[in-house]
Amino acid sequence: MLLNVGSIKVPLITKDLKVKGRKFKIIIGFFLTAIIGLIVSLYYYNKPHVNVEKSTAVYSLTAQNLIKEYRSNEKNTNEKYTERVIQIEGDVYEISTLRGNTVVTLKDSVSESSIICHMQAEDTKKVLSLKKGARVTIKGVCTGYLLDVIMVRCILVE
Predict the structure, then answer these.
(1) Are 133 and 92 in contact (CB under 8 A)?
(2) Fewer CB within 10 Å, N side or C side of the chain?
(3) Per-residue model confidence (pLDDT) at position 115
(4) Do residues 144 and 151 touch, judged by C-beta distance below 8 A?
(5) Which residues, listed in sequence order, are joined to residue 115 by a DSSP beta bridge?
């Protein structure tokens, strides 16, 4: 519809234009949300790792105590330890290699659960010289509990 204003014809705002404007706003909102989501995910993806060697452990405990805590109250223990540098003392149950990386397993004598420590490459020689049953102290980042406690970026503490 056009409105005659003198010799100029001006289009009237109709429902069609309002609907097109609403669609435009929805599309712009979607793209802004997608861009913000992309920026946030890139930030977390590129976030630098904690240098475990230079970090001080937030908690220091035995393997048996850590497993006992997880088995008694997994939710609260996850909140307490997950993504934090912790130091664990325990007996070596197994030493293995997974895709070129050394893995040390500390087992609790009471339960079936264990602590799986994915060691840093720099400690491979030291780890491979360990014997089953040796008492060790390992510092690393706890990532949670899935029947076993998982720790990453671990180092041997001397």
Answers:
(1) yes
(2) C
(3) 96
(4) no
(5) 106, 149
- Residue 53 has a CB neighbour count (10 Å cut-off) of 13
Does 40 lie in the same domain as 97? no
Residue 29 lies inside a defined structural domain of this protein: yes
**Does residue 131 lie within any of the structural domains?**
yes
pLDDT < 70 regions, the chain: 1-20
Domain residues for the domain of 29 are 2-45
In this structure, the answer to whether residues 69 and 36 fall within a common structural domain is no
Q: What is the pLDDT of residue 24?
A: 84
- CA 130 to chain centroid, in Å, comes to 29
Distance CA 77, CA 80 (A): 5
Residue with tokens 């290699």: 97
DSSP class of residue 123 equals: G
pLDDT on residue 108 = 78
The CA-atom distances, in angstroms, between 74 and each of 52, 143, 158 are: 24, 13, 30
